[in-house]
Amino acid sequence: MENTNFNELGLSEEIIKAIEAMNYTVPSKIQEKAIPVIMDGYDIIGRAQTGTGKTLAFAAPILSGIERDKGKIKALVLAPTRELALQVNEEVKKISSFSKIKSFPVYGGDSIDKQIREIKRGVDFVVGTPGRVLDLMRRKVINLENLQYLVLDEADEMLNMGFIDDIEEVMVSASPERQTLLFSATMPNAIRELSKKYMKADSVSVQVESKSKTATTVKQYYYEVRRDLKFEALCRVLDATEMQSAIIFCKTKKGVDELVESMQQRDYSVEGMHGDMTQAHRTNTLRKFKEGSLKILVATDVAARGIDVENLSHVVNYDLPQDTESYIHRIGRTGRAGNEGVALSIINSREFRRIRDIERETKGKIEKAIVPTVEQIFATKSKTMLETVKTQLATEEYKRFIPIIESLSEETSPIEIAAALMNSIYQREVSFNYAEDFKEESRDRRRDDRGRDSRDSRDSRDRGSREYSRGRGRDRDKGFVRLFVSVGKKDNVNASALLRFFADRANITKRDIGAIDIFEKFTFINTSENAKDKILNTCQGKKLDSRTVRIEVANSK
Ligand code: AMP
User: Fold this and answer.
1) Which of 70, 194, 204, 458 is 20 to 30 A distant from 160 in Cα terms?
2) 513 with 400, same domain?
3) What is the pTM of this model?
4) Is 149 found in the same domain as 221?
5) Which of ligand 1's atoms lies nearest the C-alpha of 87?
6) Structural domain boundaries, residue 122
7) Distance from the CA of 477 to the center of ligand 1, in angstroms?
8) Which pLDDT score, from 0 to 100, does residue 509 have?
9) In terms of pLDDT, which residue wins out, 399 or 181?
């Protein structure tokens, strides 16, 4: 089929002019299908997700079909979040730039008085969240008697967020003459019910293929790890990957908060985004993310829908979404505009079936990937660090450090100095936990040793028995308590096994554990004060493999 033009869809001249000014030349699929139907006066049920151009698909025909009438509200769009309402309003403003229509966004979390004043001054087109719209209706500021168009945007999300009663109240109050346009990424039963109840019997359904069903530009991978190693796996994947901008998805708000906290503890540049955060915080976070000063955002599906960031380099499913539609929705945020995108899912073995289901339903391939090893992370990072050094060498600025380095070069070779600098940058760049072992055979001492060697060779040189030291330098063990543990080398334990034993049972983070010195018959472990009590309460007398573990607070060193 030949491409249709915007001027073949029946839109008014001033709208076509605005679309030209926006530099859109070809209508998207949903626009091609929906615009003529709306222009013909039918109600529409559009199944399309964000990124398909659905905003213009409803806004352009509405703006072609309304005229100013002494501030009577002619069009109302209901959207699930403030961000989406603002986004839609921006698009409406652009499309109406050559007409006299005035649009205005209303949403909770912002002064209602200001919104009331603005609407009273005369607004033709309102875009708002259901709660605030209803509030303004009850205050008789918004009157829907003359409404020509009612749009439910992302109807499934509005229902998920519990707006059903509010939406029904709006639908009942709006002029029965109006045209109703419902857009939703998924079509659960509740939406079908809603459309049956409040939309015309001859309403037309249009659907566009989910983007990723045809998109080949998103490479999809999954990592299968034990549930308790999920966070560690995420850190390794992040450390080994060059991410320009990534959204990590969690199922719940609590999940977002917890993940952000754990990641921030490991010095990742990351912020969370969900409905409980203040509007100011969300706006600020979004600004940083768009500017690129914040590389990673952790969000729930609902919060992410309001984020109009094109071209993410990566989408990470820390929790798999509830349904395949949502998966498609999430990964559709990467690989846009012909760029290559990557979608990563971190799952446990029980979730593997879901991966297969998603593959079947999307007719796509999600490839198995292995959590990067310490060596792989080292190799990847060294390469990018070397590139940074090359870029530096092309400037003049680094030269101010030459006299400082010269003062060192009498006792140390320039190569050693450069390597030491690289090492200090490397330690800042990576945050994964060396003690964690992702292979089945978790007691592989040689691998543990290699890992530690590349991190800090001092440890192995000056203390043959020191197995593990978290953090950057030993200073972080300050204030830690030293525990005596009654198992040692002869019991065949290593740092990784010990760490897992304590972390699993005492529910502490690896950050709570400092240096681990393993001797022939016993071990000393430094732990935070807080973790000490948990360890004593939960691990005392428990078995590590077949050995009963006895723990005591040791005399401080
Ligand atoms: P939406 O699905 O409405 O969120 O739109 C996704 C993005 O596509 C927005 O940034 C729109 O500005 C853009 N867009 C909408 N229609 C077109 C079009 N016909 N050609 C190119 N870009 C478009």
Assistant:
1) 204
2) no
3) 0.49
4) no
5) 4
6) 6-208
7) 53
8) 77
9) 181
